[in-house]
TrEMBL record:
<comment type="pathway">
    <text>Amino-acid biosynthesis; L-proline biosynthesis; L-proline from L-glutamate 5-semialdehyde: step 1/1.</text>
</comment>
<keyword id="KW-0641">Proline biosynthesis</keyword>
<dbReference type="InterPro" id="IPR053790">
    <property type="entry name" value="P5CR-like_CS"/>
</dbReference>
<feature type="domain" description="Pyrroline-5-carboxylate reductase dimerisation">
    <location>
        <begin position="175"/>
        <end position="279"/>
    </location>
</feature>
<keyword id="KW-0560">Oxidoreductase</keyword>
<dbReference type="InterPro" id="IPR008927">
    <property type="entry name" value="6-PGluconate_DH-like_C_sf"/>
</dbReference>
<comment type="similarity">
    <text>Belongs to the pyrroline-5-carboxylate reductase family.</text>
</comment>
<dbReference type="InterPro" id="IPR029036">
    <property type="entry name" value="P5CR_dimer"/>
</dbReference>
<comment type="function">
    <text>Catalyzes the reduction of 1-pyrroline-5-carboxylate (PCA) to L-proline.</text>
</comment>
<dbReference type="Pfam" id="PF14748">
    <property type="entry name" value="P5CR_dimer"/>
</dbReference>
<protein>
    <recommendedName>
        <fullName>Pyrroline-5-carboxylate reductase</fullName>
        <ecNumber>1.5.1.2</ecNumber>
    </recommendedName>
</protein>
<dbReference type="InterPro" id="IPR000304">
    <property type="entry name" value="Pyrroline-COOH_reductase"/>
</dbReference>
<keyword id="KW-0963">Cytoplasm</keyword>
<keyword id="KW-0521">NADP</keyword>
<dbReference type="InterPro" id="IPR036291">
    <property type="entry name" value="NAD(P)-bd_dom_sf"/>
</dbReference>
<feature type="domain" description="Pyrroline-5-carboxylate reductase catalytic N-terminal">
    <location>
        <begin position="12"/>
        <end position="112"/>
    </location>
</feature>
<keyword id="KW-0028">Amino-acid biosynthesis</keyword>
Length: 283
C-alpha cells in the first residue's frame, strides 16, 4: 500500500508525457510529496502539455515548438525519467547527454531497453536505473521492478525507489530478472482482466445480465484482493477456507486444476519472457 509518510525528492524531469509518465506524475503531485526544484515535463504536443497548465508545480516544454525543449527540461534535474517509446531512446539520450549535470540519475521506463544501451549513450558522470512499472500506477497501486545500473550508487537507487513508492510498491531486482518480472507484474493486469472477462461471460451464460455479471465478478475480485491484503494468511490458505470438503467450490477448483491451470500460467509467462528477449534483441 502507498505510504503516506512525507516524501522529499529533488528536481525531476519527465521526457515524454504518455500514460505511464502521467501516472507517476500524479503520484508526485500528492499532498505528502515535496519535489524541491519542481517538476519539468516534455511532450511533442503543446496541446497535450496544456492539460497540466493549471498545475503550478509542473513546467511543460513542447518539442514541436522548441528544439531545445528536452535539454531545457533536464538542466538542473537530479532525476530524469525517460518515458518515450523504446525506439526513440538512443536519439533522445544523444540529444540530452551533454546537458545532464554530474550526479544526475537517468531513470528508464522504456520496455526492453537495457542499462547497457543507456550507459553507452550517456557520460560517465551520469548513472542509470532501469524500471518496469505496471498500469495500476494510475490508481496508486503499481508494482514496479527497479534494477540498478553499473554506475548507480545506493543513494541513487534509494531515490528511484522513493519516486516509484509514490505510486505503489517497489521490488529491487538484478537487471537479468527484470524481463521475468515484466511477465508477472508487468503483464499481470492483462491476465487478471482476462479472467474477469471470462468469468463474466460464464455468468451471462447462466442467465445474469451484463450489469449483474460485472457486479458479481468485479466485486468478487476486488473483495478477494482486499481480503488477501488484510490477512496474515497466504492465498492457498484463504482458498482452502472457501473450499468446503465435497462442496461446490471443491468441484469447480478440481476442474480448473485438471485443466492444467498451473502449467498454463507457466507456459504463458514463458512465452512472454521469450518475446521480451526477442524485443531486446531487436526482432
Amino acid at each position: 500500500m502507498t505510504s503516506r509518510q512525507p516524501v522529499d525528492l529533488p528536481a525531476i524531469a519527465f521526457l515524454g508525457a504518455g500514460s505511464m509518465a502521467r501516472a507517476i506524475l500524479a503520484g508526485l503531485l500528492a499532498p505528502h510529496v515535496s519535489v524541491a526544484g519542481g517538476i519539468r515535463t516534455t511532450n511533442r504536443s503543446a496541446e497535450r502539455l496544456a492539460e497540466l497548465a493549471d498545475e503550478p508545480r509542473v513546467t511543460g516544454y513542447a518539442t514541436e515548438a522548441d528544439a531545445d525543449a528536452n535539454r531545457r527540461a533536464v538542466a538542473g534535474a537530479k532525476l530524469v525519467v525517460v518515458a518515450v517509446k523504446p525506439g526513440m531512446v538512443p536519439d533522445l539520450l544523444d540529444e540530452i547527454a551533454d546537458a545532464l549535470e554530474p550526479g544526475t540519475v537517468v531513470v528508464s521506463v522504456a520496455a526492453g531497453v537495457t542499462v547497457a544501451t543507456f550507459e553507452a549513450h550517456l557520460p560517465e558522470h551520469v548513472s542509470v536505473v532501469r524500471t518496469m512499472p505496471n498500469t495500476p500506477a494510475v490508481v496508486g497501486r503499481a508494482v514496479t521492478g527497479v534494477s540498478p545500473g553499473t554506475r548507480s550508487s545506493e543513494d541513487d537507487l534509494a531515490l528511484v525507489v522513493a519516486l516509484f513508492e509514490t505510486v505503489g510498491e517497489v521490488l529491487v531486482v538484478p537487471e537479468p530478472q527484470l524481463d521475468a518480472l515484466s511477465t508477472i507484474s508487468g503483464s499481470g493486469p492483462a491476465y487478471v482482466f482476462l479472467l474477469i472477462e471470462e468469468l463474466q461471460r460464464a455468468a451471462v451464460a447462466k442467465g445474469f445480465t451484463t450489469e449483474q455479471a460485472a457486479t458479481m465478478v468485479q466485486g468478487t475480485f476486488r473483495g478477494a484482493s482486499e481480503l488477501l491484503a488484510a490477512s496474515d494468511d497466504d492465498p492457498a490458505e484463504l482458498r482452502r477456507r472457501v473450499t468446503s470438503p465435497k462442496g461446490t467450490t471443491e468441484r469447480a477448483v478440481a476442474v480448473l486444476q485438471e485443466a492444467g491451470l498451473a502449467d498454463l500460467f507457466t507456459r504463458a509467462t514463458d512465452a512472454a519472457l521469450a518475446r521480451a528477449r526477442e524485443l531486446a534483441a531487436g526482432s
